[in-house]
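Session log. Operator J.P. requested a structure for one protein chain; no other inputs attached. Running the standard single-chain path with C-alpha cell output.
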Amino acid sequence: MSAPCCAGQLACCCGTAACALCCKCCPKIKQSTSTRFMYALYFILVTIICCVMMSTTVANEMKTHIPFYKQMCKGIQAGEMCEKLVGYSAVYKVCFGMACFFFLFFLFTIKINSSKSCRAYIHNGFWLIKLILLAAMCSGAFFIPDQDTFLNAWRYVGATGGFLFIAIQLILLVEFAHKWNKNWTAGANHKQMWSGLLALVTLILYSVAVAALVLMALFYTRSEGCMYNKVLIGVNGGLCLFVSLVAISPCVQNRQPHSGLLQSGVISCYVMYLTFSALSSKPPETILDENNQNITICVPEFSQGLHRDENLVTGLGTTILFGCILYSCLTSTTRASSEALRGLYATPETEVARCCFCCVPDGDADAEEHIEKRRGQTVIYDEKKGTVYSYAYFHFVFFLASLYVMMTVTHWFHYESAQIEKFFTGTWSIFWIKMVSCWVCVCLYLWTLIAPLCCPTREFSV
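Structure written below.
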C-alpha cells in the first residue's frame, strides 16, 4: 500500500476526510454514500457478532479448538464456560450498546443542515474513534447492575422499537406504490408507451398474487384440519380483492384520479408474501396416522426435506434476511423517504417518468463541484451546498433497526429457547407479528384511499 493511500486512510479514521478504497479502478463515490456505507458496515459487524452469540455450533467449536478456553473464560469473568457471552442475554446487551450508539448520534445530529458545521464533520469522519466508542458501549452493557431488571425492561423497549421499524417500512411501501403509479401515470399523459407498461406491470403483479394464493391453498391446506391456514388465506385474499375494488371505485377516483390497480397490485403481492412467510413461520401441526405415528400436516412435503440441512438453510436464510434489513435501512434514510413520512411529496408537475424512478439521487446532478483525487478511489464531495439526507433521521432508523435485529435474532418473545440454528423454526410470536404486519399494511393503504373522503376539507398529496 502506497504512502499517500495510507495517509488518506489515516485521515479517514482519525480526521474528517471521506473514506475511500485504495484501488484506483473503483468507481467514483460520493461523500454522503461513503458515510452511510461506513455506518452500515458497523451495523453489519455487530449483527454478525449477535448471530455468533446465538449459535450453539460456534460455542461448541470454540470449546473444542481454543486452548485454555475454561481458564480464559474465568479470567475475563464471563462464567466457567463463557456462558455470559452467549445466548439471548448477551445479544440484548450488545444490541443495547449499538442502539445507544445510534441514538446518541441521532440526538447529536438533530437539525444539521450544513455539512460544514462541527457536528457534520464528526458525523462524516473520525471512523476509528467511532468504532472504539461502539465497542466500548457494547462491552459496557455487560457491566450493567441488576441484569434481570435490565433485560426485562429492555425487552419491551426492543419490542416497541422493532414494531416501529416494521411500521416505517410498511408506510414507505405504501408510499412507494403511490409514487410508482403517479410517476408512470405522468409519463402516460405524454407517451402511450407508459400506458402499456402500466397495464403490463399491473397484470404481472396480479398474476403473481393470484398464483401465490392458489399455491398456498394447495400446499398449506388439506381437507381435514389446517383451520388457521384456511381462514387466514381466505381473509387475506379477500382483503386484497376488497382494496382493489376500493381503489377503482368512483368515489375514490373522483377525489384521487391517480388511484389505480398498480398500487393495489403491489400491496396484494406484499400481502401474499407476508401470508406465505407467516404460514412458513407457524409451529407445525401434527396428527396421528393410521399407524398411530405423528405426522406433520399443513406444510408442503418438500419443505420438510429442505430443513434437514439446518446449517445451510439457516446460513442462507439469515444472510438474505439481514441483507433485506440493511437494504430497508439504507432506502429508508434518504431525504425523499423522510419527507414522505412527514407527508411531503413531489408535485405532479415536477414528475418525470422513468423506469428506475426510485433511484433518483438525493443531491443535484451538478454535485461534482469538488472532486478529491487520491491515489485510490475518487471521492465526490456532494454536500458542499448542504446535506443531501437527514443525518438525525438516518441514525434514528438505524437505532430502530438495532432493536429489530435484537428481537429477530432472539425469536421475539420466545427468547429463552432461541438459537440461530433454529432461526426458521416456527413460533407463534413470529407468526402473529407477520400476520399483524400484513393487516397493518392493508389498513395503511386503505386509509390513503378513504382519507380524502373522510376529511374532504383537507388536501392530501398521495
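Operator note: Confidence is low (pLDDT under 50) at residues 362-368.
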